Amino acid sequence: QWHFNQVMTPAEVGTTLNLCATEAEQLWHDIRETLRLRRETRIRPNRDEKILTAWNGLMIAGMARAGRRLGEPALVDSAQAAVDFITEQLWDGQRLLATARAGKAHLNAYLDDYVYLANGLLELLQARWRTQDLYLACQLLDTVLTHFRDADSHAFYFTSDDHETLLHRPRPLMDDAIPSGNAVAARVLVAFGHLTGNENYVVAAEQLLRELVPACTHYPAGASALLEAEDDRLGELEIIVIRGKADTIMRWAAPLHREYHPRRLIFAIDENTHDLPTLLATRSIQEEPVAYVCRGFECRAPLIGEHAFQTWQRSTVGLATRS
After folding, report:
1. Which end of the chain is more exposed for a tag (fewer CB within 10 A), N or C?
2. Rounded CA separation 281/294 (Å)
3. Are 63 and 126 in contact (CB under 8 A)?
4. pLDDT value at position 9?
5. CA-CA distance, 153 to 250, in Å (whole number)?
6. Its pTM surpasses 0.85
């Protein structure tokens, strides 16, 4: 009752007031303009215009995932633009900053900033491969392991070891309105560990999950993200790397993106892409387009050519990898 609502269409108003269609439309325009002018005399409320690295990481992940699943390049463009902004304004090549506003970036980044951005990059790499994004994600994870890890429990603190001294350094376990930093850290460590062959990432995730998962038995509903990361670890991720010409690999990847396989990661890497990490470099191009399908660190024979790929794809339709 406190908000202006249009309860009649202009045509209905015209009938009620005996006005023609043009007069009714003009009346509606005049009413709105009168309200707009009156509203302009009010003091506008202040807006919170700071840009948060962590929340942008969440949006990058959402935009990239939606873009590749729905086939909407504009959404992927949005995610990529956000990554580029962060690398230009909030990243100095070694460490992140947590927030920016009006051209000023400041505050040491927190665990959420690093791991949410790494997770966003994981989704973006599946939508549109850029090797620079892979190396950025690995730099973020290396920083997390160096500056946020509890050497005794192997879980991660919310603040870095060179942050200002606090009365208490929390180690987030339970989800809030957003997933806990430790849960997202476990997920991206497992994923990037298997993608790049970095066993240190996988071991760090295993140690983290062994430490924190038992505590979830008291209230599992509050630690869904951590339990999903543990499910990824126990069930093993399926990682598919497709190499070949750009148009072909995107065509191969498109139906895979649309299927429901929550443990499956799909990376379409153009044949002209170089400087890949050691394990990814072994997923080399062939005379025909090729797909490498791996579970954990074990891979099946390469699927070389259209026929081999289509045969394998048909055999997996409808088979979700999370049971």
Report:
1. N
2. 14
3. no
4. 84
5. 42
6. yes
